[in-house]
Design goal:
229 residues, single chain, globular, 12 helices, Arc Repressor Mutant, subunit A
Length: 229
């Protein structure tokens, strides 16, 4: 017989799985408590025993969209030792997934409940540890376990500071600038469904590279970066 903790974990897993299915079928904006209750077979009030509200449950379920992103990120960053190029590559991969599912990613990292994401991520990967994959490079692993978008960038830029490429002060400025601009670019995809995603991503990557260069950072393999856009 399951104890209370195991039972809670089991039911949270059920709710997350059902909500993921509904997001895939209907889109995140059309998922309701009633539709979840109908599909899972519990009354609408049961959800509140395990999740604060529907929006929080949607955040848990949305994390499933990171699984393929995580797998590709590890492949694309594996051969890279230069921390500047790795930082750029992280955003290339992030664009590739976030711009295809802008509602999911914007709500996750920039939405009204995004400040709760650190705890949600910790809970989620305790339930679904396999979605993080095998242990990888510390900077990437640490980044993926962070829920705050600023903190994620801090993790991936630590080597830039440690190697003396940028000061901590300038790196903090870079992070806050880049994350704010990325939020704008992601929001543009939401409001303009006809936007050319490939061109849009290239514009952002050009901004990122130019910002690094304006700060005195030498960007390696610049042609390679441009060719991947």
């Amino acid at each position: 017989m399951l104890d209370m903790k195991e039972r809670k974990k089991q039911l949270m897993t059920e709710y997350i799985a059902v909500t993921k299915t509904l997001i895939n079928e209907l889109g995140i904006e059309k998922v309701s408590i009633r539709k979840i209750a109908e599909k899972i077979g519990y009354n609408t009030a049961t959800l509140y025993n395990y999740f604060e509200n529907l929006d929080i449950l949607l955040l848990y379920a949305s994390l499933g969209y990171l699984k393929d992103y995580i797998a590709e990120l590890k492949v694309k960053t594996k051969p890279i030792s230069n921390p500047v190029l790795k930082y750029i590559r992280v955003y290339e991969v992030f664009n590739g997934f976030s711009f295809k599912n802008p509602d999911i990613y914007f709500n996750m990292f920039y939405g009204i409940y995004s400040e709760k994401l650190p705890k949600i991520i910790a809970d989620y990967y305790e339930i679904f540890p396999e979605e993080l994959g095998e242990k990888y490079h510390d900077d990437i692993d640490n980044m993926l376990k962070e829920g705050n978008i600023i903190q994620r960038d801090i993790e991936i830029t630590k080597a830039i500071v440690n190697q003396g490429i940028l000061s901590q002060k300038n790196t903090d400025f870079l992070i806050h600038t880049v994350t704010k601009v990325h939020a704008y670019y992601l929001y543009k995809v939401i409001i303009d469904r006809n936007i050319d995603i490939q061109k849009h991503s290239k514009e952002f990557m050009n901004f990122l590279v130019e910002t690094l260069e304006l700060m005195g950072v030498s960007v390696p393999d610049k042609k390679e970066i441009q060719d991947t856009q």
